[in-house]
Amino acid sequence: MKRTLIAAGFALLTTPVYAQPPSAEAIIADNDRNGDKGLSKEEWSPQAPIGYPEDADTNKDNRIDAAELQALIDKGPPQ
Q1: Average pLDDT over residues 30-59
Q2: CB within 8 A of 29, min separation 6: which ones?
Q3: Where exactly are the structural domains of the chain?
Q4: Is the pTM for the entire model greater than 0.85?
Q5: Could you tell me which residues come within 8 angstroms of residue 40 by beta carbon, excluding any fewer than 6 positions away?
Q6: CA pair distance 62, 48, nearest whole angstrom
Q7: What is the SS3 string spanning the chain?
Q8: Which among 17, 56, 63, 74 has most CB atoms closer than 10 A?
Q9: What is the pLDDT of residue 47?
Q10: Closest C-alpha among 2, 66, 57, 6 to residue 30
Q11: pLDDT tens digits for 1-19?
Q12: Residue in 14, 15, 31 with CA at minimum distance from that of residue 23
């Protein structure tokens, strides 16, 4: 029994844990410098895996809001 518990504990410690990606709201909260609840081209992080996606701004208000960002995330990485 003791060996089984030790083996189970070791398996848990060595199994990789994958973090959940941040939500659209969290990304905006972390990068929205002017408090307008969206990301402008100037606020878009240079560390983002893609450049500022002009086409994600579906309502053409020059910022990407949470719904637009979530749609971009749901679309998946560029092919």
Answers
A1: 94
A2: none
A3: 20-75
A4: no
A5: 34, 62, 63
A6: 18
A7: CHHHHHHHHHHHHHCCCCCCCCCHHHHHHHHCCCCCCEECCCCCCCCCCCCCCHHHCCCCCCCEEHHHHHHHHHHCCCC
A8: 63
A9: 87
A10: 66
A11: 444 445 444 444 555 556 7
A12: 31
Strand partners of residue 65? 38
Closest C-alpha among 45, 21, 24, 22 to residue 33: 45
Paired tokens of 70: 């979530």
How is residue 22 written in tokens? 């941040």
**What pLDDT shows up at residue 38?**
97
C-alpha 48/C-alpha 54 separation (Å) is 14
- Pairing mode, strands 64-65 and 38-39: antiparallel
Tell me which amino acid residue 56 is.
A
Compute and round to an integer the Cα radius of gyration of the chain. Answer: 19
Hunting for tokens 């969290």 — which residue is that? Answer: 26
